[in-house]
Target: Zinc-ribbon containing domain-containing protein
Amino acid sequence: MRFKSSKVNEFRLWGLLLTMGGMLLMIVGLAGIVFNWGVIGKVIAVVFMIIGMISMMLSMGVYFWAGMLSTSATVIDCPECGKRTKMLGKTDRCMFCKTILTLDPALAEQPAAEHRS
Model:
């Protein structure tokens, strides 16, 4: 599995990265006005503000999507840490201890005794 944390937390991470990236772009764009670069500084500020605003809107969409997925996720008890965690899809990881979880018996790991034969 390519995820190192639960799928819901991965979606939230992408939303956070989009938020931080959008804010950084808007701050960089503001430099064109603060340092008085003239007309080109205002153009740079407008372009970076628009790109940053689009990034912020995308992050809002990602957070909304993660919230909607989270409401329909299966809530299970982790066999390792015993905490309640949410699971999306056939396999996922615990939000707390990162143990791989599944409800599909075909995807579950077999005991070590069965692998020896």
